[in-house]
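Example 3.2
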Amino acid sequence: MDTPAEPLPGYELSTFSHRHTILATGPVEADLSNSVLFELHHWHPPTLRKLTSASLPPSTLSGLKDSVSLGTFPVPVDVDIPQGFSGLLKGASPLTDRDVNLNPQTLANWVRELNDGSESEETQMQFFTFPILSNAPDPILSPTLFPVWKWIKPDSTYRRAGFWDGNLHKAIEDGEWNGGKNLTILIAGVSEKTRQTIASSEMGWKFSSLEQAEVVSERGG
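Structure, written as tokens:
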């Protein structure tokens, strides 16, 4: 099938207008080009909520607009990071996103507090933050929906948008190849049936809009 025309990013920016901060945590690999399993958490003070997981190289995150490496810290293996950080955030309430500066020093203080009293073995974990845009304020995903991803770069002199993909790594790779660095990532929640339709499209039709994927999904194609 022919590839559909590239959508205008202006449409994406008006529809996906909710900006969220993601805190990505994953084990340390000596080679930054190797993929590791990152846990992606929604930074939403006074809570930190696990959103989903994604396998990708740490170096890939540097291609995202406003991505920040917060450093590497020893974390006890028995510590639940979202639960632990949420407890620390709630203890410092009232808070908003603007009241908490998520930087390496803040993170180091939190990790030290989580380490206090723990006799568990520690493992080195790396932390990154980056923004995403969604079409939902909060929660980003309902429990019954699955995440799909898309890149946009409105100021690109090349391609300005990609296609929906169920794999974050592949979405970013496509963006770096066709648009370069400083990519903005969109996220949407879809049904399992639509997610499978998008996943099966890799060898043929690619979906520039969720509406296209949903129509094909309902038709069983």
